[in-house]
Design a protein that fits this description.
The protein is α/β, with parallel strands linked by helices. It has helices at residues 2-20, 32-47, 55-69, 72-88, 97-114, 123-138, 144-165, 167-172, 177-193, 239-249, 272-281, 292-304, 338-346, 363-372, 388-397, 411-418, 427-438, 480-490, 509-522, and strands at 226-233, 251-257, 261-268, 283-291, 329-335, 351-354, 377-381, 402-405, 442-448, 453-455, 458-460, 465-469, 472-477, 498-503, 527-532, 538-544. The strands form four sheets. It has a six-stranded mixed β-sheet with strand order 13-12-9-16-14-15, with helices on both faces. A four-stranded antiparallel β-sheet has the order 2-3-1-4.
Length: 545
Amino acid sequence: MKLLAQAGRDWLDQHHALVNQLNVFPVPDGDTGTNMLMTMRNAIKEIADDGSNHAGHIAARIAHGAMMGSRGNSGTILSQLWQGFAHALKDQRTLTAELAVHGLREAADTAYRGVIKPVEGTILTVAREAAEEAESAYKDTQDLETILTRVVARAKDAVARTPEMLPILQKAGVVDSGGSGLAYILEGMLRYVRGEVVTSLGAEISQTQEDLAATLAPEDEMGYGYDVQFIIKGDSLNVNVIRSAIDAMGWSTLVVGDDEAVKVHVHVHDPGIPLSYGISLGGISDIVVENMQEQFQDYVRNRSAGTGLFEATPAEEEVPAFELEPDDIGIVAVSSGAGLARVFKQLGATQLVMGGQTNNPSTQEILEAIQRVPTSKVILLPNNKNIILAAEQAARLATNQDVIVVPTRSMPQGISALLPYDPKGELTDVAQAMAEAKDEVITGEITTATRSVELNGVEVETGQIIGLVDGTLAVSGNNLDSVMEQVLQQMQVDARELVTLYYGDGIQTPDAEAMVERLQARYEDQSFELVRGGQPHYHYILSAE
């Protein structure tokens, strides 16, 4: 079981860049191949040192690792596939052909149930057809290699047919990226069964750093402290009791496990306290202690020396933390830039998760943010369509808190949703009001095309400036001012009162101010506001209300 999963990860590793190139829109997006690979890497990390020879146990650990490490819609659905597969192998010591077939069926069914509105022509279709082929093949043979051979062939065929099921794929001239990633995972497993060598490239995935200049300074006067992680092994361990004890020692607490092994993650100023507590309960292993204050100082030092990715930004007054009473509603919001983070804080966000396009946060990162909220009631704003599934999964895992996800699909939607936020209100009423408020804003985005495509009647060449309106490709051109004007027209700003421009890390403040001056002269009846968003990749994010 372990070697099959490793082979699937390694074969995806060799091909994840190809999967990334299949993104439909020519925008810097949460790359599907990268998200799936990071999910698989976390899954394999979970079993790397597990010496169990029980297939059901290994499958359960893989599923847990995939769930906690899942990123983006594709990674989250992949984790659901593993959840279903593991359920089929529960209490089963040996992986047989029959169990593998049953597992593929449960995997597909679980993934379909996890999506509110399943869409054919996606990874779901590939998973379903792979399961159907496995069931059909098992009627003819019990040989796992033969079954997997047919499964992989059917999966590849399903991927090739995804444009027939999803018109947007046909228009973009690509096949579904998530389905392609799944096919590579299955093919890696088949290559292992055949005895073929499957090796991982082992390359680090390039991660875009956010411009966090306004939020890097630790709020605690004692600094960032230490990141402490370890596993407690013992008898009759009580996860809930351990979680409460660890949480009282520090912050950013995550405690999961069972009565025999408990994984602990916590940030503290004295790492000896949680480690000593763990030793008092049994043996501890896999100990990791990282000095986060030193990491912070190294990062600032490197950026000051010119090795950072983004231009340093002027110092800004720190936004005070939003104080909550024990019965209040807390807010967790995903933000893609320092300036946007500041806006969310000003509007009452309790915890922020840094992420967005090309940098989808994992389920575990979102869950940790939820658990840092010092109340039992939380509203979660993903602020990106590719983060919604991971957000919903994190909400389900926050078993000690009542969490509602308001499915905001953009940063402006998240900001608009916060306007009616009332920390003293009833959770469902406040969430409903915020859900309605998110739709009162129109979002525009201006970025640079990453690939050539013709979509929605818009022809795009790599490197051109493109504009999107509410997530739909709307215009392309070679001039930023011209694209800005066309985007505003399609946003119908003539009928709106206020337009806010959040300028990205690649735009200088004088240039942004000059842009607003030109727009204000053109639209005399509208008010324009300028905010340094600090987001990567997107020159401007626009909000019209």
